[in-house]
Structures are given as structure tokens and as C-alpha cells.
Design brief:
Arc Repressor Mutant, subunit A
Length: about 220
């Protein structure tokens, strides 16, 4: 079975089977190369990409993820059939992002920018399930207790609390804006304030901090 490594730009790499080409990929400069995993691992003078995209349709996607992580390359995992189990596997292997393989160019660029900033980009609905699952596991095991009142630790406005609560529910910025009857731009500003006040680097860490599991 022939596999390819795709290069969105000179600083990025996408690994997937040679069976699909998203029409918008060419808009952001995706090109193909014949490099496979063995060749990647055997190169003595390896020019590493700034980030990598690994698609789960590739039979060796987990091995690729491990290899790239060994070289400390931030990885985004793409899937044609997103699932919570696959999401957990990807995050467990060190992926910094998880998204639909047919995501448009705007989403791909947002992911690229997020990883470049050293943060994680994860689907809100799956992120909420992950944190909820962690809640239950931690409470059941008794290995970690949540702060009894973590929300009082930070000097948040009432509206920032409104936004934070909805982030913990797994809502997107767009849905938060609709529920609170404010613009998406305003939600983004509140998110920036929340990250600054709590010290969180990304949405996932904000959820954990706001729930009291880390500081």
C-alpha cells in the first residue's frame, strides 16, 4: 500500500494515505512527497518541520505520532471518522490538536497558529467529555481533590464567569456568543482575559483550572 507524506508548507508536514485531497489544501500550499516512516527515521540529517499533521487513515499514524514527538515536533491529528476513543488515543500519544480531515483552510490555519503559540487546539465537545471523564476518574480514585471553591481564586467579572462556565460545558465561542447575546469578538476578548487571569495556556487548561484541578 503506497503512502505519502504531504507538505502544506516548507515548515509543515502531513502524513496520510494517498487517497484523498481536500480541495482547499492547495490554497494553503500543500504538496506531496514520497517520504515514508522508515525513510524519516533513517535520515541522519533530518530537517524537522515546525509542526506535523498526521491523519488516522494512515496504518502507521500512531507510529508516526511517536516518531515526531520524539523529535519534539508539535503534531495535529486529522480524522475522517472522529471519535472520542480515537481522540483520547491521539492526546495520549502527545497530539496537540485533533480535527476533522475535511476541515477548511480557515480551521487549519487556526490550528497552525495555535500550535505555533505553544498551545493545544481541541474540539470543544470532545474536550468537555475528556475533562468530565477526568473529573469522574479523579473523584473515584481519590488521587486528586478539586479545590472547594477555585472560582473565587481569580478576580473574574460576572461575564467572564459566564463565559468560563460555558467553556467548561464544551461550547464553542460562536455558541457562547449566541447564548449570552454578545458578539463572537467579545467572547474572544473574554477568553483572552480568562487565560491571562488564570494563567491557562489554552482552552483545556482553562477548564481544568476553573474546575479546580490545577493551578
Amino acid at each position: 500500500m503506497k503512502t505519502d507524506t504531504l507538505l502544506p508548507t516548507a515548515s509543515q508536514m502531513l502524513v496520510m494515505l494517498n487517497r484523498f485531497e481536500h480541495p482547499e489544501w492547495t490554497q494553503i500550499g500543500i504538496t506531496k512527497t514520497s517520504l515514508n516512516l522508515d525513510e524519516f527515521e533513517q535520515q541522519s540529517r533530518l530537517t524537522l518541520p515546525k509542526m506535523a499533521w498526521v491523519c488516522t487513515d494512515h496504518p502507521e499514524w500512531q507510529a508516526w505520532l511517536r516518531a515526531l514527538n520524539q523529535h519534539k515536533v508539535p503534531c495535529a491529528v486529522m480524522s475522517f471518522k472522529k471519535s472520542f476513543a480515537e481522540f483520547q488515543k491521539a492526546i495520549g500519544l502527545g497530539a496537540k490538536a485533533y480535527t476533522d480531515a475535511t476541515a477548511n483552510a480557515t480551521i487549519l490555519q487556526q490550528i497552525e497558529q495555535t500550535l505555533a503559540a505553544g498551545s493545544m487546539w481541541l474540539p470543544a465537545e470532545l474536550l468537555s467529555r475528556l475533562v468530565s471523564a477526568s473529573d469522574k476518574l479523579l473523584q473515584r480514585s481519590g488521587t486528586l481533590q478539586a479545590d472547594s471553591n477555585p472560582k473565587s481564586t481569580f478576580d473574574l467579572t460576572a461575564r467572564e464567569h459566564d463565559v468560563a462556565e460555558r467553556v467548561c460545558q464544551g461550547l464553542t465561542n460562536k455558541k457562547i456568543a449566541t447564548q449570552l447575546n454578545i458578539t463572537e469578538r467579545t467572547v474572544k476578548q473574554h477568553m483572552s482575559n480568562l487565560l491571562a487571569k488564570t494563567g491557562a495556556k489554552d482552552r483545556m487548561q482553562l477548564m481544568l483550572i476553573y474546575r479546580g484541578y490545577t493551578k
